[in-house]
Amino acid sequence: MLVLEEENQELFDRIQEKNLARQYDLLTNCIEIGLSQGGRVFDKFMLWDLNHAVVANISQFGGRFRNEPIYVGDHKPPHFRDVPELMDQFISTVHENWYNWTNTELAAYGLWRLNWIHPFIEGNGRTARAACYYLLCARSGGLLGGNKIVPERIRENRKPYYEALKAADLAWEQGHLNLSVMEEYLAALLQEQIENQDNPADGA
Description:
Layout: H1 9-37, H2 44-55, H3 83-96, H4 103-117, H5 124-140, H6 150-156, H7 159-173, H8 180-195
């Protein structure tokens, strides 16, 4: 069962918002489990669940890796045959650097790399932002204070987000892993979130 955006925009938008709320509830569960069991619980099954939650009733392929080509603006994601191995490498990199990288470094890598691989048919950005927030919280040792969380702040102003993704893409094309722009961007958003946690006007 699904609704198409072209057929009923209002219902589509409403379902998307409800899905985001459900995804956040699931995400908080994942963070709690991660805090109790350690960094190794970050895995593809969690990502499948987060994706399935956010595209329920708007995509028939939620919670599974894509088996077809996909195109995203100027970015051409890897061939779908490479997605499983790339995702294994991605998750392994997170595990291997859990104690070597800071929370913002891990989150920057997660946000960029998931967008770069684009492993799902629908909901890649929303899943990447959820994974990013999971890494921020789990690596920091708890749910972070603030009325408006980092993923919401990204959604509100996407231009610097896209610029940070492009900067990381360009570095990767040149043979380097350089996430400095993305990390600085996320660190600023996180600081805003924490500083405004007692400001009702900053969101709910």
